[in-house]
Amino acid sequence: MTLPGAPADVPQAPSPAAPKVAWPLLTAAGLALAALLLTEGTGGAFGLNLAVWTALYLGVVTWRARREGTPPSREGLTLLALAPVFGVTFTLWAPTPDLGFLNALALTLCLGLGSAALRFPGLARAGVLDGLGAALSSGIHVIYGLAVLLDRFPWAHLKPAPAAPRTWGRVGVGALLTVPLLAVFAPLLAGADASFARALDALLHLDVNLDRSISTLGHLIGWLILTGGLVYGALLAARPSLLPPAPREGRLGLIETGVPLGALALLFTAFAARQLPLLLGGALPDGQTYAAFIREGFGQLMTVALLTAAVLRVAYALSTPESRRRPAFRALNAAVLLPLTVILASAAQRWVLYTQAYGLSETRLLGAAFLAWVTLTLAWLAVTLWRDRASRFAYPALLLGLGTLLVTTALNPAGLIARVNITRDLSGVTNAQRTEPQRANAGELLQLGAGAVPAMAAHLDVLTDCAANPGASGVPECIGASSLTRYLRDRYAGARDPRAWTLAHARARQAALRLPVPTGPVTDPPEEISVPRRR
């Protein structure tokens, strides 16, 4: 057989077959079984089990890589070590809904990208496209990783030898193959005939539950697919990214990149000049509403800042090495970044004005965290551009984002928001942005999860004072004391599965148990919880 385009008279060596090894599939199966044991029956709740499994995965894959003679890369170890840290965030705190989604996304990224870079150093010097390619490839590995592990498994070694002394070994292989067959077909037949199910239960003294058996089997397969993809990327993949590497050197000169950067600098300078009086004044401009000037304006300014970082990085990538080292190129970057600092200050001021008017919320807290990350990222980009090392921008920017997310989670946003808003209610806070005191709303605080329960339980009198909310439509925005007490006790007073234990739920349970038992029947449905529209 000849390769396409090769002369017919030149013999071509066949491609070497991939070695057959058993440990990758056994590793993935062991990790999948551990995940099943830690999560099955918890109702999808995560806590201590998530931290334990991520730490177990980190230990197993790094030990396995060292055993195979491949020293793990520093970048891969760093990202994989961050995975248990994010697992601990679910153990110590109960993140708010949006923050919980971001933490889960960061945990997935650390596992996938860390596994892809475990045996391949150089992620710290990789560009943005290379990093995105590796992250995308780690997701693709989950699709076919398990299939590769099954293909690499030495199935021929399971064939029993004809020698008599190995009879018991052959019986063991047969029993091993029998277990999954019976586990699948016995529940199916029991579900089809009640009398057969009773006979099977009497014979084996087992509670045959078809739905539970199928669900458990489905969960195990799902965990096998996930761990198979991660283990394949960490221990067997030939390269971290399936995509070709991005070009390292651009072809544009200083004029081609200087004209758009100069125009952008002029635009930013004009906008910053208009913002300076507002920064010094510290109040809402005349004729402007909070919705137009602050909420929408903050999002738009954050988009501008993030897009600016992308534009400067792309301009650097498209420029020739000679253009990058010229002082004029550095001056153009500085001309864009300096007025951008005023734009960031304007965004920060709008956040402060909005918080003074309406207190804290999950969206506003995440907005502050995003502003902090964008500011740190732009500062790092300025350093790399000035030192002509912008090719090393992506990996530290990723670590800055992960670190900002961890710090935000460590602040316990649910408890912080509840304390701030309840304190504003108790103190009757008024300022230039809010002339009437704001009421704390129990419905909004309940949506934050277990982290807000201790503060709510300590201030039931405030949250159940159903006076009309000044500044709203005059409709009470609270619920009755008995209904709120019953809701907190019913949801948080019960014991939690030890595998899904979290410190936040333990504190919420203690706070709920200290509440008085409602006088009405606990089977009564709670009163309607009114949640006003988010501002």
Automatic annotation (TrEMBL):
Pfam families: DUF4153. InterPro entries: DUF4153 (IPR025291). The keyword Transmembrane applies. The chain crosses the membrane at residues 21-39, 46-65, 77-94, 101-120, 132-150, 171-197, 217-238, 259-277, 297-319, 331-353, 365-386, 393-411. Keywords: Membrane, Transmembrane, Transmembrane helix. Residues 516-535 are annotated as: Disordered. It comes from the Bacteria. This is DUF4173 domain-containing protein. It comes from Deinococcus xianganensis.
